[in-house]
Amino acid sequence: HLIPREKVRGRKKALNLRVEKMADKVVNPDGQDIFISHSFCIEDAEYVAGLVKERFPGINSLTINYIGPVIGSHTGVGTVALFFIGANR
Can you tell me the distance from the alpha carbon of 44 to that of 25, in angstroms, rounded to the nearest whole number? Predict the structure, then answer.
């Protein structure tokens, strides 16, 4: 199931919220490999990458990739996902 956790108005607010949630839940960001996946919205993925690099300068690497067809068929164009090791799900 894909379950909306919360809603915000505006694309930039939604992208900023991803990084805020990461800040709340990330465990020891220094040295982590961070991944961003997107569904045909590379500009938004790069924007999130910039925010992550600015907020967490000690990360090891940041990789941007496409969302696969299975998840993409459920989420549609414009999806941005941020992956990191966190305290809980």
Answer: 21
